[in-house]
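cache lookup: miss for this entity combination. No prior model stored, computing from scratch. Input as submitted by user K.M.:
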Amino acid sequence: MFQLRTGLYTLLFTVVVLTGCNRKDPEPENEQEEINRMEVTFTPVAGGNVVTFIFSDPDGNGGNPPTITAPALRARTIYNTTIALFKEEGNKREDKTAEIRAEADEHQFFFIVNPSTLLTHRYNDADKNNRPLGLRNIIETQAAGSGTLRIVLRHKLNKAFAGLSSSNFQQAGGDTDIDVTFPVTVQ
Amino acid sequence: MHLLFILLLTQISLLCVQAQQKLCNGRIAGKVVNSYTQQPIAGASVRWLDEILTTNIDGAFASAANHCERFAQIIISKEGFKEAVYTLPLNEEKVISLIPETLELATVTVTDKKISIGKATTTLSEISGEMLTRTQGKGLAESLSEISGVQVLRNGATIAKPVIQGLHSNRILILNNGIRQEGQQWGIDHAPEIDPFMASQLTVVKGAAAVQYGSDALGGVVLVNPPKLPTQAGIRTELHLQGASNGRQGIVSGQLSGYHSSIGWRAQLTGKRRGNIRTPDYFLANTGVRELNFSLAAGYRKERYGVEVFFSRFNTELGIFRGAHIGNLTDLQFAMSSPRPVITSDFNYQIGNPRQKATHNLLKINSYWKKPTGEWQLQYGFQHNQRQEFDIRRSGRDDIPALNLNLFTHTLDLVYEAGKGNTWQWKAGINGMAQSNLNTPGTGIRPLVPNYWVAAAGAFSMLKYTTNRWDMEAGIRYDLRHMEVRRFDRNNVLQRSERLFNNASATIGAAFYANEKLTLRTQLASAWRPPAPNELYSEGLHHGAAALEFGSDSLKTEQAWKWINSVQLKTDKIRLEISGFAQHISDYIYLAPQAETRLTIRGAFPVFHFEQTDARLLGADFTLRWQPVPAWETLFKGAMVRAKDLTNRAFLPWIPPDQVSVTLRRNLKMPSTSRWEGAYTTLTCLLTARQWRVEQERDFAPPPDGYTLLNFDSGIRYNHGRQAIDIGFSIHNLTNVAYRDYMNRFRYFADEQGRNFQLYLKYIL
């Protein structure tokens, strides 16, 4: 038994040595599609302070929770609202918004407000089929209060779905690329 | 007048003398075999004029060598087989096949006491002949599920894996023509890359079988064996044509084999195409399949030695149901609450993303050398498995795979077997394996499993003791396995790690032949499985499963013990096989749900960690065939498995629910002068219970209700000289019932297949 064990070890060692010479290191993968930062910029139409909501999750699927910042919005104000998407890696920040814009006909952002009286939303851009995308929007705050704003980006959905809105977008199919909820304070 | 008379007499005398001097040393001889199983038929009667010969235990017969004729018309008959009339040339040995009258004889029964070592005390079931032809077109897992105790684990309609007595994936072993199938079998959505049309026999060994085969054989082993190369001159052709209505599937498979100056050869080709599957109410979008496979074999066989080369290539592209490609928890809940998938489709053959492409190349060279004392066998195998998975991506990356893996495996086996047919038989061997798993760069996604290299070696020894009533076997094995991994961690720093696994396995078993009718078998065996690459290194989103899975590189080897007992009863009207098993698996690796729900930019996902526990499986399965009269046959099959996570006192997930099936078969006797024969119709009722042995917190949705399926099958054979055509027609899910199966991972999203009409033709020349 001892001889057998030695014999096997020798065989194994030989195989490992013989095959070990050709082992090459892998190459790191550049995850071009990953998005881990979203900035929602509220610019008051009539002038005033710009408010930026930020969702940042640099470790992606890792255990560290994401950082969500959402400063207060002014009541009864109309904001031009734009969305920008980034991939953050270390100190590098790559803008990924252009990729979404380039495939506007396959993407759409949805804005779910709770309570629905807190804000009103209107799309302010369109894809080549004249359907909204949601990178540029107009949001009007109502009376003071608090609630949540959930922003969902759907990919490869059926944009021609009858009556497509923020309450039924799941029925239009597609995949969720972004699903972020911001706490909103209107004062 | 006188002269004429004398001349006539002389002529007649001359003729008489000539007749007496004519050579009369002709004899008829040959071998009678079962045309489906190729097993010799003993005790068949061969009638020639008024002479009756009987075949011996090897199916051989021979008359005295004192006949003057050049041809003999003989009638061969045996109870249970259709009588055959043959014209034999004298002094030539021919092989004559008899066609069984019933299903019973179309499969091999394992009661022959000359069973080779390693198979006598194991519980084996085989599929060949008519049963194989009927099910080959459905894929390997579906074919195997004809055996009680074997069930199917599905990922939608395009991916199916066999489950042997509760275990699947890398807890069972599949041998592709004697070579361990090395693909990415750890993946629950990776179907075995094997063409069932390559095989003439599928065998399932129920039992832990590490001693003979090495790691991974915890639940059992599937042996996929092609036909033996021909040893008689002449070219044999086999052609399969199959069509199915659901998915508008077409399969063509052809085979040519021949023999010339000691070399037998075979070439085989299969093509398969299918479009979207339909449930009773809607089409399942993107469930098409394409397959193109071929195999080539050639062998030089002499009495004492021989060498054989075999090459096969399997190539498939299959679509993943669009409605099952789910994002986050919210999406999953929405999909599960919808009575039907929101993504509708009509029929087409297009395969879009998400889809899988897999190719498997196998090269085998084996040789044998028979010496007076024993036989040496040397076998070399090389496999290349390439797997690409394409996902829904942005910016024109749809054609860049999200997963691109190449697995290269070399195996070398050296075995020595001695004492065949003696009281003591001995078998010993050494197995070596070298494997590398490489990610092809450029996917743009962190690899799911890292690059690794494995070198393994094992040595085993088995002993068999045979007496009149008993067979006893025992065996031991020792394995060593070295693995090196190179991967990038979260900070893109290269990490190298090595691990060494070692393991001892043992087996002991006995078979008791109480009488010709009853055989009892028992076997206690151990098996092991090192942790799989995904169990060690997963760290992220399992696409389409709405889950974050994390591995642990400190996982240990799984160790299992399986005790299996079986009873086999054969009377002239009844065939009964029952097997019961108990299995304990230490350090059983499973996905444990964690308390947290993790928030990412895509939304919330449940988190799972690969953990280890102790598991116990118990179960039983049976097959009962009853044929009260030749025209009627009934078949009962059933299986049940009880699995428990002992440490956490919980049920294990993905264990098949209890199933029972009842088949009624009517054999139609054709007139003996007719060229048509072997006509039958069957009606099968399959009952599947609801799997209530589940943990609510560990599953996304409650298990679906039990269901009843009705299947119809019929077949007939047409003979014309050397040619034969088998024609079959079957209907699966006759009543077009809408149901969901617990063992389908897509049961959260859609129903199972609706009614399916299938027609198959098998032509032999």
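stored under new cache key. Chain B has two domains: 23-100, 133-228+235-339+352-764.
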